[in-house]
Structures are given as C-alpha cells and as structure tokens.
C-alpha cells in the first residue's frame, strides 16, 4: 500500500466515540477524511450529518472574520453555516463542495472532479459520503496530502484526548499529547496521535469543542506530525462563532 492510500485508510478509520457524562463510552460511528494528490480549485463548502442528528447539506463560504479572532497571515476563513462557526485554514488548502459532489455522483462532472482532485471515483465517493459538514485538503506532499474534516457529535462529550482519539488510533496507535484548550466558542478537548498503517507511520489530531449543547469535532490527518500540529494549533486559536 502506498503512502497516499495508507493515509486514506487511517482517515477512514476515524471513529467518534460518544461519551456519556459519567465518562463511559457509547456506540461508535465512523466517518471518513481524505488524502489525495493535490486538489483542484474546488470551492469551499460543508455538508453531512452528525453522529446523532441528520443535518442538511450546507455550502461553506469565505467570510469576514469577527473582531474577536484575527485571521492569521497566510490563512483563509472556512465557515460552516450548519454549525454557526468558522476556522482558519492555510490559503494553500482547498475545501470541497461536498453537497454538489454528492449530487453529481455518477455523472461525467463527478468523474472529472475526481480526476482533478487526484482521486479515483471510489475514493471520492468514500470522501463525500463521510458525513462531514466540511472537508478540506492540503497540497500534495510526495504521495500524500493533508486533510481536515468537521463533524458534530450530540448526546455526550469527550472527557480527554485519549477517549477522543481511541477509535482513530486503534489498538496499535499511540497518543502523543493531549490537552484541554479554551476556544472562542467554548472549552475543547484535543488529542494528537500517530498510528502505523501497513508499515507507514501516519499522524493525526482531533479537537472536540463544546458549543451550543453539542461537541463540534475537527479531525486532521497528514503524513508528518509537524503539519498536523501547525494546522491544528491554528484551528484551536481560530475556531469561533461565524459573523
């Protein structure tokens, strides 16, 4: 398995374990992130459903930042209307128009979109069927591209980074760091980890932010820890209410 497909395999294993207030885990629900060759000029969007609630597809668009949170240099805003939030991603990253891609499945336009993104149609289908509100991918690095997805979890909260990332890491993965950062929206739980997939070490980070009675979950995957940390650090600093 090449590194690109290995990263896709890791991303597709992301399992968000909904925790009850007492700290015990409940049922798991899987979602899929992505990894591909360099993405095309797909427009920013958001679409999908949370673990315990079905949300309608909503496009993400660039927006003017609220005064409370500054946009870091070299970044752009990614707004998620379904959650009423936004975060900053590097200007070199592209967000996928998930709703449009779902509607185009099986059409020549869909096949072209897959080719432009460096996906097979099967890989693209796995990506857009992930149930994420928003998905973004970074520029290709060798055989891999970093990726980010955003979901929402209802019915409970994650207590720590170990619990948050346990489904993604699997039995052989390692939790490298965890923290409880405060975001502009509310308190968060973060876990950074790595796991080996078919002999390839891959890195990830997840952030769960308590907001409006649920937890919004941002998951990032990449072939190197430095990229994951850099992008997630900015997400923590900029995750806030959309203006």
Q: What would a concise description of this structure say?
A:
The protein has helices spanning 3-12, 98-104, 108-117, 121-128, 161-169, 225-238, and strands spanning 15-19, 25-30, 75-80, 85-90, 94-95, 134-137, 147-153, 174-179, 188-197, 200-211, 214-222, 240-241. It is of the alpha+beta class.
Give your account of this protein's structure.
The protein is of the alpha+beta class and 243 residues long. The chain contains six helices and twelve strands. The strands form three sheets. It has a seven-stranded antiparallel beta sheet, sandwiched between helices. Strands 3-4-12 form a three-stranded antiparallel beta sheet. Strands 1-2 form a two-stranded antiparallel sheet. The N and C termini lie far apart (43 Å).
Structural features:
243 residues; three-stranded antiparallel sheet; 24% helix
């Amino acid at each position: 398995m090449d590194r690109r497909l290995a990263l896709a395999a890791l991303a597709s294993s992301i399992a968000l374990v909904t925790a009850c207030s007492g700290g015990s885990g409940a049922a798991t629900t899987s979602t899929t992130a992505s990894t591909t060759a360099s993405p095309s000029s797909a427009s920013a969007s958001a679409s999908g459903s949370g673990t315990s609630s079905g949300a309608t597809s909503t496009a993400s668009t660039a927006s003017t930042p609220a005064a409370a949170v500054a946009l870091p240099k070299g970044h752009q805003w990614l707004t998620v209307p379904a959650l009423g939030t936004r975060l900053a991603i590097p200007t070199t990253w592209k967000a996928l128009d998930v709703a449009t891609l779902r509607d185009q499945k099986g059409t020549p336009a869909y096949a072209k979109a897959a080719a432009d993104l460096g996906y097979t149609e099967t890989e693209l289908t796995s990506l857009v069927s992930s149930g994420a509100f928003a998905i973004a991918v970074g520029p290709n690095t060798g055989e891999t591209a970093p990726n980010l997805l955003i979901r929402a979890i209802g019915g409970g909260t994650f207590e720590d980074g170990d619990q948050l990332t346990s489904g993604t890491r699997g039995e052989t993965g390692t939790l490298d760091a965890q923290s409880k950062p405060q975001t502009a929206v509310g308190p968060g739980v973060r876990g950074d980890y790595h796991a080996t997939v078919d002999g390839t070490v891959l890195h990830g980070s997840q952030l769960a932010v308590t907001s409006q009675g649920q937890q919004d979950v941002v998951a990032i995957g990449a072939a190197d820890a430095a990229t994951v940390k850099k992008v997630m650090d900015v997400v923590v600093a900029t995750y806030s209410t959309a203006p």
